[in-house]
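User: Here's a chain of 474 residues. Predict its fold as tokens.
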Amino acid sequence: MPYITGERKQGLLLPSSIEDYINPSDPVRAYDAFVDQVDITELGIQTEPNRVGAPEFDPRAMLKLLVYGYSYGVRSSRKLERATHHNLSFIWLTGGLQPDHKTIARFRRDNQAALSNILKACAHVCLKLGLVEGNTLFVDGTKVHANASMKNTWTEKRCLESLKDIDSRIARILSECEQADASEQGNPSLVKMRECLGKQGKLKEKIQGVLKDLQAGQKNATNTTDPESVRLRSNGRLGVGYNCQSVVDDKHGLIVHSDVVQASCDSNQFSLQIEKAQQALGKPCATACADAGYASTEDLKKSLDEGMDVIVPSARQVKDPSSRVKKEHFAYDAKDDCYRCPQGHLLRYIGDHKQTKSRIYAVGDPEQCRQCPLFRRCTNSDQGRRVERLFLEDVRERIEQRYLQADAQAVYRRRKLRVEHPFGHLKQNLGIRSFLLRGLAGVKAEAALAATAFNLVRITTILGPEAFVQRLAA
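Assistant: Prediction complete.
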């Protein structure tokens, strides 16, 4: 059977212009049309075409390069540089411009605040095209690793232990130097020991500076590579990174707002992220939904007070059922302000818990609990069972009852389909499991680029590249 073979020396007649390289239905034309209609000065990118000095690459072309690159998982400045030389779609998109990796990295670094606004511009386009309604919004978060190592994370305890170890090493080196001075003057090993002593001294100064910052600030730990990152647990492993928040519209699952916060959990993020999403859309939403990680009653009350329909289950509504006696098995008597346990014993108010913002109720005689047949299923404390009631317990009960209604359940089932889809695409398909830039401003810019990239992929799937370009031009 004959084989089809290639011939590198075969003469070819290439298109006469770069425009002819890409057919009208190629998705890259959608990215080009989107960035062309964005007001880059409104984003915050300074444009001075008449400035005196060496010419710079067109900032709009650089923005196209970043947005298109992130859409296909090409984020490294070196890989983007390589793409402008070898990939026809990149060559067409930039009009044949070939910036080097330093130029690309500098543009991304110098325009972090502007790049953070690109998703807002994309949300406005989606609203204009009718792809986003803004009536029902879903919130979720995911943890993304920082461009830093856990070994460079320092706590006050680690600093003190390291300083103690360094002091002992310095004392040992000084002792060895004194012995060498007395017996082997001019020996090369003496020079080496003094170099080692200098290194230990510099390390000690660095750790002392870190310790001073920890003692002066409110953080329990700091990373010397990326000081703005935080310690967080992801998939059972402790690391350093950021909490990436996303707000998604219900109609087509498009992201209308993204943010990066320095928090290890999603609690107290609900009202903030919904408010920012409403500002981006320029309109209030009717319904907001999230998982139990956002179930902070005090925070959810802010959205309720604005007349919003909040669908968020409490932690106790999603936990696995067990045989233990739970708080909901206790009956509350509002008139006498007390609880009655399943065995009929009274739990009366004994004080407040300021940290959890709740009232504490306990049995009068702990012996009643110890003699109860449900003792080990109810509590293991010899002081008897205690129950906490939030200051806003009535609000929490109202939110829990709303979650159990049939229409709320239907909305909550759509939550996973809408808000978790973008994270899956960005992490699994594009490999965005860690940030490249360091610092909060840098990771916010990357998160906005990634969210915009996801939206453009979705839009070209929904409308098709040609229809999207035509509707933008209309």
